[in-house]
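Quick one, probably user error.
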């Protein structure tokens, strides 16, 4: 493959069993966001298209900037429709997190939609940011992008968790990701990540990933180092530690409180 194309560094780290720390982006809009994430030591950015007003051009701009910073741009798309994932992959993302995966059929469609023939049925495009706009034979494009796209299946209900083993067994799925807040909401224990029932969820998915040589992802555990440590020890290697909003509010809240406490 020619110089100027961008390998997926996060996927390489995950294959090696190394930790990938991801910074969520939901309110930032410009190319500065991935520069800030890189400067803070993150391996990837996670542009949340599902739960934010971020537009496709804005998401693409941040993804392209991330490529130049050497960190991996990942997008959570807003549906399972093939167009949503393919479009952001065509315009800069190196990975997609697909929400609301309930069973193996839905997970298999991620692979079909996001990989080129002969693996899947992603629609061909001539060039793009992840290829550095180089002139490359289509066969090489197919092979390179199939190898470098990171596919994350997001499980968000107890029913989906029951299918974790079968989903982890699917070729092409790289990460089985627990939407911790959604799962706990559905279980009637919102954000109670230390509850034994949620620990059982984490352990079930961790076992499935170990069995099938896949990686486990978790989001929503920000700000709780002991919980994060537990998850890492359990086997989590893709962790969304926090987001632009949570980091801003945490730092701003602490400084405002400290200044309010000064005796005038």
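Nope, works fine. Designed sequence:
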């Amino acid at each position: 493959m020619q110089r100027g194309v961008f390998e997926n560094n996060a996927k390489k780290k995950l294959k090696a069993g190394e930790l990938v720390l991801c910074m969520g982006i939901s309110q930032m809009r410009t190319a500065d966001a991935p520069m800030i994430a890189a400067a803070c030591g993150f391996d990837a950015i996670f542009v949340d298209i599902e739960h934010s007003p971020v537009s496709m051009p804005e998401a693409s701009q941040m993804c392209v900037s991330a490529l130049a910073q050497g960190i991996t741009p990942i997008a959570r798309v807003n549906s399972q429709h093939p167009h949503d994932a393919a479009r952001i992959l065509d315009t800069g993302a190196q990975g997609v997190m697909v929400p609301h995966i309930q069973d193996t059929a839905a997970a298999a469609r991620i692979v079909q939609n996001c990989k080129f023939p002969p693996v899947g049925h992603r629609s061909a495009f001539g060039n793009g940011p992840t290829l550095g706009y180089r002139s490359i034979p289509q066969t090489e494009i197919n092979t390179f992008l199939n190898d470098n796209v990171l596919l994350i299946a997001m499980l968000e209900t107890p029913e989906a968790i029951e299918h974790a083993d079968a989903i982890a067994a699917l070729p092409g799925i790289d990460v089985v990701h627990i939407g911790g807040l959604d799962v706990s909401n559905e279980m009637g224990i919102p954000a109670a990540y230390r509850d034994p029932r949620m620990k059982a969820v984490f352990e079930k998915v961790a076992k499935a990933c170990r069995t099938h040589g896949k990686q486990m992802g978790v989001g929503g555990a920000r700000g709780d180092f002991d919980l994060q440590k537990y998850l890492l020890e359990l086997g989590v290697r893709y962790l969304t530690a926090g987001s632009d909003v949570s980091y801003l509010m945490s730092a701003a809240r602490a400084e405002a409180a400290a200044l309010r406490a000064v005796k005038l």
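The CA atoms of residues 22 and 240 lie 5 Å apart.
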